[in-house]
Amino acid sequence: MSIKQIGPTPIQAFHTLSCHCGTVVMELHLPDGVVSPRRCDCSFCRRRSAIMGTTSEPAIRIIQGRDKLTLYQFNTCVARHYFCSVCGIYTHHQRRSNPQEFGFNVACLEGVNPRDLGELQWMDGVNHPADRLQTPTQ
Ligand SMILES: [Zn+2]
């Protein structure tokens, strides 16, 4: 699922993402729009409750606030979850299932109200893909 417009807001090829207080500002290269936005029910995401999009590291440019980003890790400590140390908003994370991939907070995209996305797919974070590597059929 590739979404090029969310509500009244077209997703730009280079779209700005910011935390709530504006300390952290990033630019994401999203030539295909927001691909497969989803929620996740792992022990962390169920509390954070963010809608996440997917991109890759070269597609992320931190414009300001890099020194104010705080890293949170847990469990296997492969995934790297970043949030603004001033306002506490999650901006992006490096994935555990594929460290070449990054997730980002769709609701932090400029002009986007995630309510306009309607019902979304849930990722099965309880049975994480990295815990099922022995069963390639999944
Ligand atoms: Zn902030």
Automatic annotation (TrEMBL):
GO terms for molecular function: carbon-sulfur lyase activity; metal ion binding. Gene3D superfamilies: 2.170.150.70. It holds the Pfam family GFA. Residues 15-131 form the CENP-V/GFA domain. InterPro entries: CENP-V-like (IPR052355), CENP-V/GFA (IPR006913), Mss4-like_sf (IPR011057). It comes from the Bacteria. Keywords: Metal-binding, Zinc. Belongs to the Gfa family. This is Aldehyde-activating protein. It comes from Pseudohongiella spirulinae. The lineage of its organism: Bacteria, Pseudomonadati, Pseudomonadota, Gammaproteobacteria, Pseudomonadales.
